[in-house]
Amino acid sequence: MRRRFPMSMIAAAACFSFAWTASVAAQTIADADWTPPRTPWGDPDISGRFTNQSENGTPMERPDQFDGLSLEDVPEEELSAIKQAAQDRTIERFAGPLHAPSGWWQPGLDTVNGSQAWLVVDPPDGRIPPLTPAAEDRIEARAEARRLSGRGPADSWTDRSLYDRCITRGLPGSMMPAIYGNSYQIFQAPGYVGITYEMVHEARIIPLDGSGHVGSDITAYMGDAIGRWEGDTLVVETRNFRDGATYRNTNAETLTITERFTRIAPDRIQWVVTMDDPETWGQPWTFTMPLTTDTTHPTPEYSCHEGNYGLMNILSAARAREAAEAAADD
């Protein structure tokens, strides 16, 4: 039986997190004698508020222009140029008469300081392995079932994604950078680590007590996570996913996601994610990105359901289109 996470522990960990984050805010990565901090009970301290907004627009796979190079080989001037181009494209896409003007984005949208030209680091070619025949068959079967049903992409709210429906972005989707909602907070208490995600109001409590996974018949959109420390790195293994929320059409029954959180500087944690699903890819693959301390952006309530006009508009637009097509046929 797992221990529950007492609210007193959450409150204490939250206070400690805020205090520690404030204490390191004035430090810099250049501190030559800096060593990773510890919690009062001796664990490596990875708590704090973080964002990965700067990697918004970073491609998952290595662009062709960098064939043969590793992330460390990309010249700084080239990295700066592609990051600026990514920010310009984002502003151009969302600016205009129907969106905020270009100047509105400048204070908050910051992709020019991104530190990576792509995310996949293994396999060494920076590419996601090809799908297995089983995965291709599974995806095609789903598509064929959809075609045979005669349903459109928005006949009902059930036809939309779990993200559209304000339910989940899943794992690792909830920590992947997007145009907004890139705030995360990590809490720690003896025997536990908690992570809250701004989008879509996700929360995980990860036990460190050596307990195993729950039974395979218990599933969740964010899976069942267990953690352990390997030196200064928190290793989190997650499985028992619920079908419909898995990343890149993986098989919920065979997917294992392993995350590694390592504080590499006073203001930075390196997040490394290994995707392992033998029913989807012929080999595991790994991507990485930094989580940067950001005390100016708390993790606010994501009241998506209360204001989910996007879903309402998707459905009403589909009905309007059907009515227009029926009128044209008449």
Estimated helix fraction: 10-25%
Number of domains: 1
Number of strands: 10
- How do the helices and strands follow one another from N- to C-terminus? HEHHEHEEEEEEEEH
Q: Kindly provide the radius of gyration, computed on alpha-carbon positions and rounded to a whole number of angstroms.
A: 22 Å
Average of the residue pLDDT scores:
84
What characterizes the major β-sheet?
A: 10 strands, antiparallel
Could you explain how this protein is built, in words?
The termini are far apart. Strands 1, 2, 3, 4, 5, 6, 7, 8, 9 and 10 form a ten-stranded antiparallel beta sheet that branches. The radius of gyration is 22 Å and the shape is globular. The chain contains five helices and ten strands, in the order H-E-H-H-E-H-E-E-E-E-E-E-E-E-H. The protein is α+β, with helices and mostly antiparallel strands. It is 24% helix and 21% strand. Residues 1-31 have low confidence and may be disordered. The protein has helices at residues 7-24, 76-94, 102-105, 133-149, 309-329; strands at residues 48-51, 120-122, 183-189, 192-197, 202-207, 224-230, 233-239, 256-265, 268-276, 285-293. It has one domain (7-74, 117-293).
